[in-house]
Amino acid sequence: MLALYRALLRLYPAAYRCEYGDEMIDVLSEVQSENQKKGALALLFSGVRETGGLLYGAVGEHFMGITGSYDNGMFSLGRRFVMRSEFRFPKATVGLMIIILAAVMFTIEKARAISVSIPHANPPVGPIHPTQVMIVQALLATLIWALTAGAIGWGIIHLLHRSGVHQLSEMNPSAIPKHR
């Protein structure tokens, strides 16, 4: 089966094979060894599923190489199956954000024009008393608290990431005893 998997990996683009080929073969061999324990039928179903997945993935990678996007209609792989990182938002997002900003600005301008056209409908607002300025101090305190909490959270995540990467780089999978 592994010989078939290696042959199917040749269908992938060379750059993809160089980057992920060894890892894919390792995973496929683990899946095969797990399914050998379950029996011949599980091994057959697993082989068919993995063969189909390899063929589908090869076609998707070639479409990616041609179009530069994983969204190719019938062969759309979606983010769940993509091994490469890309920008998360579609290109149309910027245009839509500009349209929304223009609509908000247009609405504000219309509201300003309406308020100028009816000058005496609302009574004038008196001077702002010191007790009403407390909202600014509360918002500032909330902002400082949120920034501090975010910095602490980022620091914890950063430290955990570093220690996890270092632990994984020092790990030797062949030295781990297997439980039977």
Care to give the gist of this entry?
Helices cover 68% and strands 0% of the residues. It is mainly alpha-helical and 180 residues long.
**Biggest beta-sheet profile:** none
The average pLDDT is 76
End-to-end Cα distance, whole Å, is 25 Å
Q: Tell me the strand percentage band.
A: under 5%
Treating each run of at least 4 consecutive H or I residues as one helix, how many helices?
5
Low-confidence stretches: 77-83
Structural class: mainly alpha
Helical residue percent band:
55-70%
| Cα Rg | 29 Å
Query: What general outline do the C-alpha atoms trace?
Result: elongated
User: Got a strand count?
Assistant: 0
Pattern of helices and strands: HHHHH
